């Protein structure tokens, strides 16, 4: 059942402004369009008419997975979106049977499941979202326009609009009034500085430093490039020893998008030979087998992610009315776990939920952060927990992390043998179910049983040995 109603539900204001027309901004604009007479989505870049990446979203050149919960949420906001992507060459697949996933010395135990995954380039997704948002009658997209600050009431208690930077040299900035302003301007958001300047202070930050580097390249896709039955190749490093991994996803135009990554500045080179050699050094030969024979169609693109970074707006004692921060501007994750867009979609859903129940905007931000923080907490725990397996990771490690990691390592090992355990893990990583499902008695028992079997047969199990087929 759709979580978000398409028709105008209740109107709580005349004008909403969203800063940033990437995923978080577009999803926010979609939700706000149900509750405001007019929504203005403001983007610094000139937005491309065709499917291509742009300056403000440079990460779009790298593999972008939409987790199943994100697909579901985006599909509720834009019915038929996934079909539209598929019609344009995106590849829809069954996660459990087609993702060939190597981790901790074994392949996961593939089985026919019910959780879908989709492979497409990020620019294709963005172009489809943009077209859908542009078609909403009360949404206006203002491009090539940068926001320079916030307009406020005299006592600073309420944000009353945004300051549009003039594009003429020496020109005067102008104010665009709004009942609510949503900052979706990404990790580089200036909300901390703006709020500080208004006397609210900066939000407390949590940062977990991993210095991950992505190097990505596009290849022609042909039948037989990957082992039969697989559509995605996923090789994760066995922490704390291995630091390199990679992912290959099918994208539109019969192409593969190959992303190689490394922790702690051990990044893949951008030249032909170096890229191939890095792929050869991974724990599974799958990605090397592909890149060593497939035809490259692009140069290598590079992106460096120093850390997962979270700004705790939910903990601020004082916050102005008429203002919200969403998406990467609140929390940007180590991208290896593919969570950012799904978290942004859940935040948009949370915004829709809180707006639906109100007649005014008073107290909106607190109600929003209270809901949104639940998704952020889970995603943060999953991503940073895995990163804390490395002694080189810098950041404040919660006291329970080592114990949790011991159990999740056992879950990883069991996922190579037991499809019920792997199925539960797929549900959790796709944010369809809470991590607590991994602690259900039958799963714990299966995890222990599979690990005992592994200990009795210590040599690396490189092909799946399936213990059971789940009743799902
Ligand atoms: C290498 C990499 C790989 C990733 N892989 C995945 C993945 O597999 N799956 C996943 O779900 N997520 C992934 N992510 C995260 C994902 O890219 C983001 O979560 C997603 O783009 C949503 O971010 P956002 O919309 O909040 O901000 P952004 O995407 O950063 O967009 C911010 C927008 O605001 C605009 N802007 C900035 N400042 C201003 C201003 N002052 N005025 C006007 N406009 C402004 C920018 O031009 C831009 O359009 C990855 C990230 C990286 C870095």
Note down, in words, how this protein is organized.
This protein has 472 residues and is of the alpha/beta class. The protein folds into three domains: 13-56 and 70-78 and 125-205 and 308-384, 3-Layer(bba) Sandwich (FAD/NAD(P)-binding domain); 92-118 and 207-305, D-Amino Acid Oxidase, Chain A, domain 2 (2-Layer Sandwich), CATH 3.30.9; 401-456, no CATH class. It contains 13 helices and 18 strands. It has an eight-stranded mixed sheet, with helices on both faces. Residues 459-472 have low confidence and may be disordered. Bound molecules: flavin-adenine dinucleotide (FAD). Flavin-adenine dinucleotide is lined by residues 19-25, 42-45, 56-57, 59, 62-65, 146-147, 184-187, 214, 303, 305, 327-329, 335, 338-342, 344.
Can you tag this structure with a few keywords?
D-Amino Acid Oxidase, Chain A, domain 2; globular; binds flavin-adenine dinucleotide; 5-stranded parallel sheet; disordered C terminus; alpha/beta; FAD/NAD(P)-binding domain; 3 domains; about 475 residues
Strand content: 15-25%
Our count of helices gives 13
Text of the CATH class of the largest domain: Alpha Beta
Ions, cofactors and other ligands present here are: flavin-adenine dinucleotide
The gyration radius over C-alpha positions equals 23 Å
CATH superfamily heading of the largest domain: FAD/NAD(P)-binding domain
What is the arithmetic mean of pLDDT? 94
And the CATH topology of the largest domain?
A: FAD/NAD(P)-binding domain
State the helicity in percent bands: 25-40%
> Which regions have little confidence, pLDDT < 50, spanning 5+ residues?
459-472
Question: Architecture of the largest domain in CATH?
Answer: 3-Layer(bba) Sandwich
Please list the strands of the largest sheet in the order they lie side by side: 5-4-13-14-15-12-16-18
Total of domains: 3
Q: Give me the count of strands.
A: 18
Alpha-beta content class: alpha/beta
